[in-house]
């Protein structure tokens, strides 16, 4: 594929119109690009800030055709884009990220194999595609462990934590019908992530290591810098860079990791796109993950992602929207980002807040002082 430089004034096509597409589009528009978005939902978060909205299903050939007709470069904001759409756009448009990374990261077993091939540690795991494989995996890995669907899982969906044989009951009806993997439960100190971006020119950049705190398996808040020793921050950054190199990344890869109680950094999973745990970069870094992504796919030089200030990023879920709006007068030191979604369903990611501080702990204190949410 011939690499091109896409200049401001040209049109960036985004597959998927959620908040990640919206924040990519906002960065791109600041730089003078035009935006076309493909999404089945009219008035989706990205369509609200786009020049052209193509309303079509992700596997609709007509939608793909329309996208090819108006975009000078195409990117995606989520990993479950239909294979045929990706293939069509690779042939008939310019999709510098290619389709291989999507193929790899779509499936946990493929993804883990690629991580191991890159020489990085992952937690012990085995495929579970039948009752026999389940038995073999339990014999080998034992309890506590976690059964995960190999495809389509997010925010802990499709996962069964197994403390003992009793917990198998819930998952049993699905065994053999959909593919799973069994993973050993890793006692961890922290969950962290590193977002790495690589441009079409082969230039690479990483965001500061983020510390992630989940509630009910959904990211609740992110702290930067991650409160771990510097050598572990370096190790995590090195892991992300090594993986980007091994995968010949073009675009953005978010790498979720565990800092085990054994002091080792394990790679948990990846996402081939900007990530919720990188939202702090909009307010706290010289260049955000979204701007860096746009630079990478357009063939522009990457910019510095230096951390300008420690920060906390707190997700606003459906149930938090009204309390935040009711107390909006308290938002003096908090940067509010809302994604323009109409239905504030419980657990749905509606926006986020970023609060800067002199340190991550001080940012937490400020968030607590604001008192509009409980950390
Ligand atoms: P998802 O795609 O749903 O984000 P993850 O693999 O990241 O799936 O799992 C969700 C969360 O469950 C993780 O952020 C972590 O808190 C916990 N978790 C997942 N796998 C393990 C494991 N092997 N050991 C300990 N905790 C785990
Ligand atoms: Mg995860």
Automatic annotation (TrEMBL):
<feature type="binding site">
    <location>
        <position position="148"/>
    </location>
    <ligand>
        <name>ATP</name>
    </ligand>
</feature>
<dbReference type="GO" id="GO:0034028">
    <property type="term" value="F:5-(carboxyamino)imidazole ribonucleotide synthase activity"/>
</dbReference>
<dbReference type="InterPro" id="IPR003135">
    <property type="entry name" value="ATP-grasp_carboxylate-amine"/>
</dbReference>
<dbReference type="Pfam" id="PF22660">
    <property type="entry name" value="RS_preATP-grasp-like"/>
</dbReference>
<feature type="binding site">
    <location>
        <begin position="268"/>
        <end position="269"/>
    </location>
    <ligand>
        <name>ATP</name>
    </ligand>
</feature>
<feature type="binding site">
    <location>
        <position position="191"/>
    </location>
    <ligand>
        <name>ATP</name>
    </ligand>
</feature>
<dbReference type="Pfam" id="PF02222">
    <property type="entry name" value="ATP-grasp"/>
</dbReference>
<dbReference type="InterPro" id="IPR013815">
    <property type="entry name" value="ATP_grasp_subdomain_1"/>
</dbReference>
<comment type="similarity">
    <text>Belongs to the PurK/PurT family.</text>
</comment>
<feature type="binding site">
    <location>
        <begin position="153"/>
        <end position="159"/>
    </location>
    <ligand>
        <name>ATP</name>
    </ligand>
</feature>
<keyword id="KW-0436">Ligase</keyword>
<comment type="pathway">
    <text>Purine metabolism; IMP biosynthesis via de novo pathway; 5-amino-1-(5-phospho-D-ribosyl)imidazole-4-carboxylate from 5-amino-1-(5-phospho-D-ribosyl)imidazole (N5-CAIR route): step 1/2.</text>
</comment>
<feature type="domain" description="ATP-grasp">
    <location>
        <begin position="112"/>
        <end position="298"/>
    </location>
</feature>
<dbReference type="InterPro" id="IPR011761">
    <property type="entry name" value="ATP-grasp"/>
</dbReference>
<keyword id="KW-0658">Purine biosynthesis</keyword>
<feature type="binding site">
    <location>
        <begin position="183"/>
        <end position="186"/>
    </location>
    <ligand>
        <name>ATP</name>
    </ligand>
</feature>
<feature type="binding site">
    <location>
        <position position="108"/>
    </location>
    <ligand>
        <name>ATP</name>
    </ligand>
</feature>
<dbReference type="InterPro" id="IPR054350">
    <property type="entry name" value="PurT/PurK_preATP-grasp"/>
</dbReference>
<protein>
    <recommendedName>
        <fullName>N5-carboxyaminoimidazole ribonucleotide synthase</fullName>
        <ecNumber>6.3.4.18</ecNumber>
    </recommendedName>
</protein>
<keyword id="KW-0067">ATP-binding</keyword>
<dbReference type="Pfam" id="PF17769">
    <property type="entry name" value="PurK_C"/>
</dbReference>
<keyword id="KW-0547">Nucleotide-binding</keyword>
<comment type="function">
    <text>Catalyzes the ATP-dependent conversion of 5-aminoimidazole ribonucleotide (AIR) and HCO(3)- to N5-carboxyaminoimidazole ribonucleotide (N5-CAIR).</text>
</comment>
<dbReference type="InterPro" id="IPR011054">
    <property type="entry name" value="Rudment_hybrid_motif"/>
</dbReference>
<dbReference type="InterPro" id="IPR040686">
    <property type="entry name" value="PurK_C"/>
</dbReference>
<comment type="subunit">
    <text>Homodimer.</text>
</comment>
<dbReference type="InterPro" id="IPR016185">
    <property type="entry name" value="PreATP-grasp_dom_sf"/>
</dbReference>
<dbReference type="InterPro" id="IPR005875">
    <property type="entry name" value="PurK"/>
</dbReference>
<comment type="function">
    <text>Catalyzes the ATP-dependent conversion of 5-aminoimidazole ribonucleotide (AIR) and HCO(3)(-) to N5-carboxyaminoimidazole ribonucleotide (N5-CAIR).</text>
</comment>
<feature type="binding site">
    <location>
        <position position="214"/>
    </location>
    <ligand>
        <name>ATP</name>
    </ligand>
</feature>
